[in-house]
Amino acid sequence: MKTYQSILATAVIAIAFASCSEPKTSESSESEVAAETKEAAETEESRPSPKIVKEGQIAGKAFKVQYGSPSVKGRELWGDLVPYNVVWRTGANEASYVELAEDMSVEGQQIPAGKYSLFTIPKENGAWTVIFNSEWNLEHGHFQYDEKNDVLRVDVNPVWEESNQEALLMEIESPGLVIRWEKLTLPISFK
Description:
By secondary structure, this protein is α+β, with helices and mostly antiparallel strands. Helices cover about 25% and strands about 40% of the residues. It has two domains: about 1-45; about 50-190, no CATH class.
């Protein structure tokens, strides 16, 4: 009987000890998650071309854009860093994308609700081609671009300004989505 009581007492002590150490494991897991979250935030902050997310409405319809925002940094952009007549990811790092909550028209052409990567083909003269591609979650931008996944291509006339925009901006404003970088303004009409 004493052996049974000894085994029972040992089991009770072991259970009590295990339950006391359990919160430490939980706290440890929470600390690890917090550290990983902090590390991800620090990595995001240290990106040379920060990730920007903007949400708003165009013609009363929810609209979202996400892009990497590179800076000019004294570089020659058009025709050099961003070559003419070649697909450009329209930003930096992963592919930029737009998310349309409802069907819309872009430059007068219909596009269904959904998420689309955003590419452009800059031209030295004339209209630029703006591309909406169904493969929106591309880690390496134009390196993974596949024309067969294009949902819509439209032509948009760039406007060249006197003022200089250092960091690439995409704004949800009239006439829809306006891209600004260096002396470029590219107003893409959405309705």
